[in-house]
Amino acid sequence: MSISSIIKSRLETDRSAAVALDRAVNGVKQNSGSTLEDVRSGVERASWYSSCLFDKYKDVCTELSTEDQRFIKCIYEVYKRKNIIADMMCC
User: What's the CA gap between 80 and 73, in Å, rounded?
Assistant: First the structure.
């Protein structure tokens, strides 16, 4: 192999590594943004539950509890059924 082909091969390898690193950094950035948004939503939901500590806001607490129970039932139905798409299309 000549020196120029070795250098050319090395540059191509370095370029491929740089592109892969750039993609990885962008993926981590997007994922961490999504994770931070999920954490923010969780903290917000937990703050809503602080209304359960005050008698004046028991209706808000009851509504949150009802929403959570409905959500849990929906998740249960999703895992219980074998073909969710077919059930949605038929009914």
Answer: 10
Residue with tokens 């000549």: 2
Longest Cα–Cα distance of the chain, Å, equals 83
60's CB contacts (< 8 A; 6+ apart) are: 48, 51
Q: What's the mean pLDDT when you consider all of the chain?
A: 85
Nearest alpha carbon to residue 23 among 15, 12, 34: 15
Tokens of 28: 């981590």
Q: Dump strand ranges (E) for 1-91.
A: none
Q: What is the pTM of this model?
A: 0.50
Token pair of 65, please? 């509890």
Band the pLDDT of 1: cuts 50, 70, 90. low
